[in-house]
Amino acid sequence: MEIRDSLSSIRDGLVSRVYSPLSGAFILSWALWNYRFLLVLFSSMPVRQKITYIDATYFKNATELLFFGFLLPLISALTYLYVYPYFSKYVYEYTKAKSVELEDIKNRLERKRLITSEEADWTSPTTLDKSEPQNEAASKASGLTPPR
């Protein structure tokens, strides 16, 4: 049971690292920086030809391996994680403010349209004397029916 528990613990640790934001951003960034390498790797070329082509074309020296294999993807991932949210916050605030502004304009225009419609067609209502019998003349005088 101890071996199974150890393997489970190792697996859980690896899974938690792979699903962390930094790991995900780094893997995506690495794939974008090295997409040609991935195209060759997953192409239909024979394995020996792939290895020969990759050795001749990609990561020819330690500097290129360091830059394209680690530094540039790391810088891109950190930029995505730390710089992008900074600008994203201002874009979100701006778009939300514009959305609220448009909603205010819409509400103001709808209120204006409703007021002019009421003022044009209806008379102001008056109270009815409950002791009087209801008839058409009293109903018209109360303002509860629209003019014909």
Describe the structure in your own words:
The protein is an all-alpha fold. The chain has one domain. It contains six helices and no strands. It has helices at 2-18, 21-33, 35-41, 47-57, 62-121, 136-142.
Short description:
By secondary structure, the protein is mainly α. It is 78% helix and 0% strand.
Structural class: mainly alpha
Please give the alpha-carbon distance between the first and last residues.
91 Å
The number of helical elements comes to 6
Order of helices and strands: HHHHHH
Percent helix range: over 70%
Low-confidence parts lasting 5 or more residues at pLDDT below 50? Answer: none
Overall, the morphology is: elongated
Question: What is the number of domains?
Answer: 1
What labels would you give this structure?
single chain; 148 residues; mainly alpha; 6 helices; 78% helix; elongated
Question: What topology emerges from the helices and strands here?
Answer:
Elements: H1 2-18, H2 21-33, H3 35-41, H4 47-57, H5 62-121, H6 136-142
